[in-house]
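Ticket #4471: structure export looks truncated?
Reporter: QA, pipeline team
Priority: medium

Steps to reproduce: submit the single chain below to the structure queue and open the exported record.
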Amino acid sequence: MTISSTVRVAGPFIGNGTASVFPFTFKVFAAADLQVIRLIVASGIEQQLALNADYTVILNGDQNSNPGGNITLTAGALPAGYTLTITSDISNLQPTDLTNQGGFYPEVITDSLDRATIQIQQISDIGDRTIKVPLSDGVVSGLTLPTAVQRANAFLAFDSNGDPVAVTGGTSGAPATVTRQTFSGDGTTVSFTLASTPGGLGNSALVYINGICQERSTYTIGGTTLLFSQAPVAGTNNIEFVNFLTTSIGTTDASLVQYTPIGSGATARSAASRFQEVISVKDFGATADGVTNDATAFTNAATAAGTRDVFVPGGSYAITGTVTGNFYTDSTVTIVGGTVNTINRIGSTLSTTGSLTVTGTAATGALTVTGTAATGALTVTGTAATGALTVTGDLAVNGGDITTTATGTATVFNTNATTLNVGGDATAVALGAAAGTVSVGNLSMNAGYGSIAPVYGCRAWANASTYSVSGTYSRTGTLVTVTIANHGLETGFRAELDFTSGTATDGFYTVTKVNANSYTVVDTASGAISGNVTQKCFIRASANIASASCNVANGLLTLTFANPMPDIYYSTMASTDQTSAGFLIATGASGGGLPGGGLTSQTTSSVNVQPFNLSGNPSLSNNICVAVFR
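Actual output as written to the record:
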């Protein structure tokens, strides 16, 4: 039979943890004619398996009409992370002996010819895996490698004729230095420390495991750390790291160096044209260490730039005197000591411990000034900050405004100082809009009145109404629903309720409004019987009133403060709707100025207010209003 296929390799088969039998379809004469290679994918290490010890072979019965067979791994399925390749390894011998006048069969001649063809195919496969000279080179001579003595500790290079030569480190065409370091794998460790940083992101280095060069995707190099994606196999000094550092090309004109940007459609140009787009103070020797005087570097950069802006990289720059120019930054810049006019910020934070002039938008993130931010120190033309303006020292605004675009609550001054002066020598200071509200905690006034006590502000207020109205109620457990037409109450008001029938408990309750005709209260006891109710009075109060009650028998109104007064010397103003029937008086810390007592008690935590009739006796008033000032 003829050999009609040039294929002498089966596989590589990828391990999946299931398959243990692998086929091949090329002719061999015996099981020993096969070579089986197992590859560990992670490490790139190849292992040649042994017949019978690692695998067995079953050949097809007729290798002429049905060549090939199967190999079976003795250890079972090929695990994931491994591959298996089968080829032939027939020795380059001719075992057939044709004797003179001896008998022989045509099959003997065919097998002999097949053997020779197989041997040629094996050699051809080896040739296909070697480095070859292109056919267009014509007749090639001189491709012999240098001798072993010449190759020792040298590099393979090619001369001007393309012939191989051996060059030593540091000579033309060879790396300046070569460093070599070995490690021992243990099957677990993935990180190894290099003796020095290889430079160039490690792209000048090669890594070998058991003599097999590793693919770059299987490891990374960062600084002095060599990190494998999978732990190398155990072995003594079986990991080799070789780094090639090429000879410096020296100094050359940037216009001679080509720069190609990354990305589709990018156009190559010279490095000189690329670098000249931006003028930096560091191009002129600025150190940005906060100590060395960088004023000269700033000045020279501004002069070279002309009308262009000069870039200031992030850092701390010591400046002596004043530097004038157009500068900008996209990072944190600190000017120490002197003055720089002008730095436009297009990035994070701009700060100074000296003087700073800002034209345009000073900050979209934060503008920080440590020192005196005044005329000559901080000058802002335009928007000072759309993020935050922090000043440690004084802030002077001459002829301009301090504004905020914030909605809701905005803090204009947030200070730990014990005294905050607003106005200075101003003849008028306005706070808040005409229809707005200004909250003042403690306000002192000294404008034409001499030294006077602080202006008093209203600290609390309450309103008690004793108009009596009736209705009905229903209840479920402790929840009581009161129904009174147009009751006039809102959620949070306190109402005195007299349940004239049913099981609800009389007393003062905090109201939860349902609608204009009903509200709910919570009883102290559970019940189920409904009935009639009389609303005898209700009270509404400010947030600083923790509790309020009204005695409908004599009209006494008791208020308890949520935040106590600083002392008992506060003023209480009260009024009533009584005209000819009587009037309200509230004077003194305790006791009163009328028969029966006036303001019965006044403490830091509560106050009692008592209305009187014209006869001087305590009397219920239909409507009592009380305000407390301090």
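Status: closed, not a bug. The export was complete when the record was re-opened. Leaving a note from the reviewer for reference: Confidence is low (pLDDT under 50) at residues 358-366, 370-377, 447-452, 580-599.
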